[in-house]
Design goal:
The protein has 271 residues and is of the alpha/beta class. The chain contains six helices and 15 strands. Helix 4 links the parallel strand 5 and strand 6.
Amino acid sequence: MADLTGFGTGEDPKPTVEPIPGEPAAAVRTASESVLVVADYHAGIEVGLRYERGVELESNADLRRVRLFGLVDRVDPDRLVVLGDLGHRVGGVDGAEAEELDELLGALLDRVRVTLLPGNHDTDVGERFAAEERFTLEAGAGTRLDRVGFAHGHTWPSREALAGDVLCIGHEHPAVRLEDSVGGGRKERAWLRGPLRPEPFATHFGIDVAELAWADPELVVFPAFNNRSGGTWVNVEGQGFLSPFLPDALVDDRAEAYLLDGTRLGPYRSV
């Protein structure tokens, strides 16, 4: 697997989060297992868009499933971690979304262990599959595998998730607006990466900074797997973040954006 520029080198002692070139997914190697990580799958989103916005779109359920299974084949992980919003409908799972999830998880669990960090769109999703032996439902505030923390990002991450060298989150659906020489623009999904500072977390937990288990973690914000799910334009003035700890907890001048193809855009605010 190719290492995306800036996301880990042989000289970096921290765990490597390797975005897969051209894909909104990353491979993570812990001390004991290989992990494929994706965020914001949003199964059944087409039904949601129909009722929420009056937008009629043909379902891409089959294409989403093929793309994800292609990544499973490519990485051959021990575990798939989903950083929340595996489903889409906030009020619960039914109809086309339930059918898509049942088919997806039924096939995935035959291939690989699946861990879900539930997001704000995952009402009842975890409980639907909780009895499956190879399915693990974690707390939405996060967990840690070895030295890598995982959370959805819609709440403050747990102290356990923060105690590693890297924190991976979803929820934001980060994207950048790119303009050409004649003023035309396009939106591209992006990775957002940068070091975190401890003070906002210490304040949130009501403790002194010295009481945090803090290893100067790097934050990696995953692009949404589902390209129909919108996003936060991180380089557009007035576009706010969704996570309660962003952007305050970022060392802002060191946070950078990357395109899915590996292009390093530099500091995200000045892209």
